[in-house]
Amino acid sequence: MRAVMSLKLLHMLACRFCAFNK
After folding, report:
1. Angle at CA of residue 18, ends 6 and 15, nearest 5°
2. Is the pLDDT of residue 6 over 90?
3. pTM higher than the cut 0.90
4. Distances from the Cα of 14 to the Cαs of 1, 4, 9, 18, in angstroms?
5. DSSP readout, 1-22?
6. Measuring CA to CA, which residue among 3, 1, 21 is closest to residue 13?
7. How sure is the predictor about 8, in pLDDT bands with cuts at 50, 70 and 90?
8. At residue 1, does pLDDT exceed 70?
9. Residue 14 CB partners (closer than 8 Å, separation 6+)
């Protein structure tokens, strides 16, 4: 279950990074 949480966090971080890049 911890892996899923980590993946979710990574996805949120990637989304934020993408928005920041734009």
Report:
1. 30
2. yes
3. no
4. 20, 15, 9, 6
5. -HHHHHHHHHHHHHHHHHHHH-
6. 21
7. very high
8. no
9. none
Give pairs for 4-11: CB < 8 Å, separation 24+.
Answer: none
> What mean pLDDT is predicted for residues 1-22?
85
Residue that the structure tokens 């279950």 belong to: 1
* Neighbour tally for 13: CB within 10 Å: 10
Alpha-carbon distance of 8 to 22, in angstroms, equals: 21
Angstrom distance (rounded) from CA 9 to CA 16: 11
